[in-house]
Amino acid sequence: MTSSVLKTAPTPFLDTLKDMDNPHRRKRFDAAEIFADGAPRGADIDYEHALKFLYGYNGSTATFNAYRRELERLLQWSWRIESRAAYSLAREDIEEFIRFSLSPPAAWIGEAHAPRFVADKGERKANPKWRPFVASLSKTELKNGRKPDAKAYRPSQAAVRATFTALSSFYDYLTEENVISANPVALIRQKSKFIKRDQNAAVVRRISNLQWDYVIETAEMLADDNPSTHERTLFIMNCLFALYLRISELVADERSAPVMGDFRKDQDGNWWFHVTGKGNKDRTVTVSDAMLGALKRYRGALGLAPLPAVNEHTPLIAKARGPGPVTSTRQIRRIVQDCFDAAFERMESDGLADDAMELRAATVHWLRHTGISEDVKTRPREHVRDDAGHASMATTDRYIESDRRERHASARKKPLRDL
């Protein structure tokens, strides 16, 4: 390895899913075609199986993107720095790669996300602004005017766990394909060297009851003032909170396309929402009377009958302009953020500056957490578990004491001795 490798930004070679040809139909894989610096021996095998492994996730864009990110980092490091094929790496090599990922060279770190490839005269060419690693800031830090700094890059514990997960899946695949005999990631017995164990469960991030009151009141006010734009906003906020939906479960993608007909009445007259969620798992969510009222209001604003017909294919969340459903989670995120911002301004004007500042840190996913946290106080835990789509009761139990304000308030008056 020469120092120039560390001082030069690598060139991407793993494209998006929609721009990837089916690798199972290819007869030839030549790493030299995409690695101009001279591919090491065995890189062709890496390249072939990396493409086939990733293509297996063509039903889940989110997983494809996450695994592509980690796999590209590994191959760039293995080929450029170690001059070895990734399939030949042993346990200690993977540990060295993890150490590298914790503190990569500055030339490999970007300060903004950039696409791997850009269109140039009808051809897709590598984007010189792309970097394998990206320094990022929280939403609050960005709002306070801080700028991302490559020198301050440090991956979160969740990011390190994601790296282990993706690499272990890839090496499991290589094992199943008889390329290697054992998964080197699985042989790492002390992952705690890289992942700190916190005896406290991760805090469930949610907004307070007061903040939710302001948020939903703000959405209602926006809908009353401008129904053509914000009745959709109000319905989205209600879905995220009352149905515990993830943002990906509101948009149409290759996995599913949510429609009004996903609200269905059973033989007892009870309404359920059918959704394809995380991991392509189907679940049904209880529709409360209040949520059914929210659905009727939204449909009325769209000029539809109060309740969906059987097998109705009207998009659940339609585009603001033109036909068809919303297909971008970014658009949903923007709608929710605009509502948060408007609620923030109302709270500040009402003299609730501290609560307003906490709301600035909130994200879309906090609404799901908030809905679950509230329901688990009054509903049977197993009912909440099934509506939320949790794989185990342990996940649901994390929400039982998720409101740290209430937890602290209950302990504030504890005496140190009997009085």
Features of the shown structure:
globular, single chain, mainly alpha, 15 helices, hpI Integrase, Chain A, two-stranded parallel ribbon, three-stranded antiparallel sheet, 419 residues, 2 domains
Describe the protein's architecture and organization.
By secondary structure, the protein is mainly alpha-helical. It folds into 2 domains: 3-193, no CATH class; 209-409, Intergrase catalytic core (hpI Integrase, Chain A, Orthogonal Bundle), CATH 1.10.443.10. Helices cover 44% and strands 6% of the residues. The chain has a 3-stranded antiparallel sheet with strand order 5-6-7. Helix 7 (209-225) crosses helix 10 and helix 8 (227-242) runs antiparallel to helix 9 (289-301). It is globular and about 65 Å long.
- Could you list the spans in which at least 5 consecutive residues all have pLDDT below 50? none
- CATH superfamily of the largest domain, by name, is Intergrase catalytic core
Helix content: 40-55%
Tally of separate helices: 15
When the domains are counted, the total is: 2
- Which class do the helix and strand fractions yield? mainly alpha
- How would you sum up the major sheet? 3 strands, antiparallel
What are the secondary-structure elements, in order, as H or E?
HHHHEEEEHHHHEEEHHHHHHH
CATH fold-type name of the largest domain: hpI Integrase, Chain A
CATH architectural group of the largest domain: Orthogonal Bundle
What's the end-to-end separation, in Å?
Answer: 71 Å
Sheet with the most strands: spatial strand order: 5-6-7
Q: What amount of the residues lies in strands? A: 5-15%
Number of strands: 7
Assigned CATH class of the largest domain: Mainly Alpha
How would you state the average pLDDT, rounded?
88
Shape: globular
Work out the radius of gyration.
Answer: 25 Å
